[in-house]
Amino acid sequence: MEIRKLTVNDIRKGQKDSLEVHIDADTVDRFAAVSGDVSPLHMNDGFARDKGFDGRVVHGVLISAFVSQVLGVRFPGESCLLQSLNMKYLEPVYINDHIRVVVECDQISAAVNSMTVSVQVENARTGSVKARGKAQVGFLPEKRT
């Protein structure tokens, strides 16, 4: 996976980037193992269905990790320092959902070397919005010679 190297001067207000991800059971199981969040809502299909969901619900923080991936790998990439992320989860994401994470620059400031982005997570097949949020991103300083 190539990591982009955009600087604060490469980005303009309204510029977007995105990532599509298929979330399978193995991804959720590995995330649960690393995070320790083995809530039955995420791990037990029957439990989740008994609570009114269509099946196992993907961890919201796993969805947020894909936001971090877009920012840290693509937009801006190497120079990214994620300073804050505020997400609102509107609908559950389920095992085998295919999501699209879209980030859009709302404000860019070369003076303070940062940008604010809007985040939208949607089902890539249906377009239904699963989560929305905002992130504050700082740009790491250029390497000094």
Q: How would you explain this protein's 3D organization?
A:
Helices cover 25% and strands 34% of the residues. With 145 residues, it is an alpha+beta fold. It has one domain: Hotdog Thioesterase (Thiol Ester Dehydrase, Chain A), CATH 3.10.129. It is elongated, with a radius of gyration of 17 Å. 24% of the residues are buried. The model has no long low-confidence stretch (mean pLDDT 96).
Summarize the structure.
A hairpin with a 5-residue loop joins strand 4 (114-123) and strand 5 (129-139).
List keywords for this structure.
145 residues, Thiol Ester Dehydrase, Chain A, five-stranded antiparallel β-sheet
Q: How far is the first residue's CA from the last residue's CA?
A: 27 Å
Morphology: elongated
Biggest sheet, in brief? 5 strands, antiparallel
Named CATH topology: Thiol Ester Dehydrase, Chain A
Provide the β-strand percentage band: 25-35%
Strand order of the largest sheet: 1-3-4-5-2
What is the H/E order? EHHHHEEEE
Question: Could you estimate the helical fraction of the residues in percent?
Answer: 10-25%
Measured on Cα atoms, how large is the radius of gyration?
Answer: 17 Å
Number of helices: 4
CATH class: Alpha Beta
Which class best fits the helix and strand makeup?
A: alpha+beta
Q: Tell me, rounded to a whole number, the average pLDDT.
A: 96
The CATH superfamily appears as Hotdog Thioesterase
Q: How many beta-strand runs?
A: 5
- Going by CATH, the architecture would be Roll
